[in-house]
Amino acid sequence: MDFGFILTSIAPVFVPSNILFVLMGAVGGVLIGAIPGLTSTMGIALLIPFTYGLSIIPSIGMLLGIFCGAMYGGSIAAILIKTPGTPAAAATVIDGYPMGQKGEAGRALSIALFASFSGGIIGALLMTFLSPIISRMALKFGPAEFFTLAVFGLSVIISISGKSLVKGLMSAAFGLLIATIGMDKTSGYLRFTRLQGFYEGIPFIPGLIGLFAISEVFANIENILSQGKVVAKISGVLPSLADIKRIATTIIKGSFIGAFIGAIPGAGGDIAAFVSYSEAKRSSKHPELFGTGVPEGVAAAECANNACSGGAMIPMLSMGVPGDSNTAVLMGAFILQGFQPGPMMYVEHLDIIYAVFASMIVANFAFLVVGMAGVKLFAKVISLERKLLIPAIMVLSLVGSYAINQNMFDVFFAIAMGAVGYLLQKYEFPLSPILLALILGPMSETNLRRFMQIDDGQFWKIFTKPICVIFLLLAVGSMISSVINQQKINKRTAKAAGEK
Asked: pTM here?
């Protein structure tokens, strides 16, 4: 390894003007991520025309700043108003919002910031040193492997089902059912409805906003005048040493999970976050506390979705295959600059590759600075009177739903999903399994049908593929361990009730 060449390649990244561009991108990314309905993909796409006149290093640096900043920014809305700012922050809601409601919004935000930064750095380092190896593994994924990956992801549903496994499975079944609405991706046949708004399937972002944000608005309208405000305790912009020790193992495991899943084209931060959360709960000595507001739950989700950023860059740079929607847009930025991502990049433009690696690391430090500057300000949001905060959340949710496609149909759908979410919460049905089913349902169905067409309907051939067998065994292991964990939780809950 030629360290002199590496230093020469990364030196331009640390020019003050280039660092400023990355910092500007991080500020924009955090703001975009914190606003429900605005995604990092949208932010990157909007900024590309403005970076066209720049050279490759500052332009890609700014776009990476948005990418990494938005991944962290999604946790802000998830913790403060129970609305994932981005789909990748959906798992953060499970423990982040309860922490906020207990007056620990500042603590939750600082843990999310530290975990996001740590996961992002680990993901970037793995991208730097392991990209050729991981990209070769990712290249082996076909329809069968993607199907079993989706099955493994769906096995996580048991871990996020809350108190009742039956209700969790019913919520997941509902999510899988509505995920089939719309045009069949294989045959083009319209299923269940001919409404134009459903042609491409359920509008995902408006559905997410409706389930988590608008349902919370409906729930609070009942007692909006009687509720006071929650006082957020803010002692520092970074977690305490005790919290860091508590979440260190979770961050390391979650970061590797996130980087690996991110390197699989088509997977994303949302899947990585749920899988990491499930693993954190499975390996915890007190799994019954997950969902009530524990630091490990926030850390597991946030480190995984940020490590996924580095992982998603691996197939894009080494194979020319975007790992997710963000890297698909980033790939377009590379092409606009005259560089074609793929194997030849490592031969003809290795200096640019190293500069991208360095920019990714700088982008993570940039959103750390932005987050540290804003933690106290963000946490004050939750201290507003409920009668002021709830209408503001409703307006923000409706604007976010409209912003995706500039379509009123999406707004009405978000309100409808809000009503559904309100009723489900009222009868103690968990919402997270619905979201996970909406993410993984189309992925599992489409890839299963492709696999069956390729292999002439011989499903048994899936057991001849090593990667498929590994994912299926992981799915079985995940379900068994989750059921055992749930039994432990039920016993501890019953014992605690008996002592009272």
From this structure: 0.73
